[in-house]
Amino acid sequence: MKLDLRLQQYVEWEVKSVIPIKGKFGYRVILKYMDGSERSQQKAGFKTVKEANAAREKTIGELYAGTYVVYANVQVKDFMEHWIEEDIKNRVKSNETYETFAGIVYRHIIPVLGGKKMVDINRGDIQKLYNEKTEYSISVARLVKTVMNISMRYAVEKKIIAESPAVGVNLPKKVDKKPYHTRNIDTQKTLNMEQILILLEASRNSPIHMQVLFNVLMGLRRREINGVKYTDIDYINRTLRVQRQLGKKINTKKEDFDPKTYTKQEVGLKTLSSYRELPIPDYVFEAILEQRKIYEKNRRRRSGAFHDLEYICCSSYGLPRSKDFHWKHYKKLLMDHDLPNIRWHDLRSTFCTLLLKNDFNPKAVSKLMGHAKELITMDVYGDKRGIIADCLDELQPFIDDVMPKEEDEILMNSEVLDTVIPVENYLL
């Protein structure tokens, strides 16, 4: 069923009197639109005049209140498909977000509720759905709840239903006791300080030195790293504005792009909290300056073919790197230097855990990481047992070299962080 939501936007209405219709009773609703057109809907099948008049009065009340449902027979399947393709696809900033929403709709909601009419969905149906998905996967259940809340609000706004059946329906209590996914970090999934030193030094002679620095010393996500530009750097205050990532834009086609650029489009960040300003450690700042020299050299040498896009992590022709460019080089670094075979994302985990281990305010850490909520940082990275051996005496020379000196401490703006953080403590 193709939904034409323009039919919802009537400007006038008229409800005709009750009349006999095919041996029973009913009435007509006339909806009038801005362009002068009209739409007639028949409400029939009532056994008595009294029943028909009661229904007519209810309809008039809904029209006055603005809750009258034009599409009384629309199924959940048709509505959800419309919502995903006509609303979500045009609103979200990344293809990954769209695919997440679509996956929940097509794999978990439509198979359960797709055949029911939207007007017939009740709180019991929603609760049953949540219970079923909780048994399947708690993380899936949370996503289902999010999708149902957002989609049902949209349905109310568009007058598909009069009120949301998802309001007040919660996941089973056993989920509420653990509101966010918890992942324990141990020495098998992070690097200790000795290993960090090895990786940083080894990466100097690799194409991914800057990627490694941005990850392990500043906690940037891989797509954020690829989107960092020289224009994002405040060279006076030594801060970095994280304001984009590279990926696929919604509603774009591969054939409309030059080869190998389809997945390197500038897109918005993961959440509003991902937009942040970070202090740059001295070690990273010096590396940025050195990388700029290489950038300028390549621009002069390849003036006709160079793409002056200002990306810090780019090819010798100025082209941005793909999200997976680092992978083979990173794995080789780990193998060649006998480092634990951990994921790239675990370097970001290492950065976060270092901060938490050294008693950084959890809310401040959340801001630095670009997390949406403080609890996410605490739950995901909060297990600090055995992350790093206490070897400060050995590490102090490295800390003194890498981190800002005491007299040059960079203090985060109070609007970015709710606490003042001396950056020199990052790796203490």
Q: In short, what is this structure?
A:
With 428 residues, this protein is an alpha+beta fold. The chain has helices at 49-65, 76-91, 95-113, 123-136, 138-157, 173-176, 193-203, 209-216, 222-227, 282-301, 326-336, 345-357, 362-369, 374-381, 392-402; strands at 12-15, 19-21, 24-32, 38-46, 233-234, 239-242, 245-247, 265-267, 276-279.
Series of secondary-structure elements, N-terminal to C-terminal: EEEEHHHHHHHHHEEEEEHHHHHH
SS elements, strand count: 9
CATH hierarchy, class of the largest domain: Mainly Alpha
Put simply, the count of helices is 15
Helix content: 40-55%
* Shape category: elongated
Q: DSSP strand (E) fraction? A: 5-15%
Tell me about the largest β-sheet. 4 strands, antiparallel
The termini sit apart by 61 Å
Low-confidence parts, pLDDT < 50 over ≥5 residues? 176-187, 383-428
Q: What is the CATH third-level topology name of the largest domain?
A: hpI Integrase, Chain A
Overall structural class, as computed from helix and strand content, comes to alpha+beta
Instruction: Supply the number of structural domains.
Output: 3
The overall pLDDT, averaged over residues, is 78
Rg, rounded, reads 28 Å
- The CATH superfamily name of the largest domain is Intergrase catalytic core
CATH architecture of the largest domain: Orthogonal Bundle
Describe it.
There is one protein chain. This protein is α+β, with helices and mostly antiparallel strands and 428 residues long. It has 3 domains: 61 residues, no CATH class; 101 residues, DNA polymerase, domain 1 (Orthogonal Bundle); 233 residues, Orthogonal Bundle (hpI Integrase, Chain A). It is built from 15 helices and 9 strands. Strands 1, 2, 3 and 4 form a 4-stranded antiparallel β-sheet that branches. It has a 3-stranded antiparallel β-sheet with strand order 5-6-9, with no helix packed on it. Strands 7-8 form a two-stranded antiparallel ribbon. Strand 2 and strand 3 form a beta hairpin.
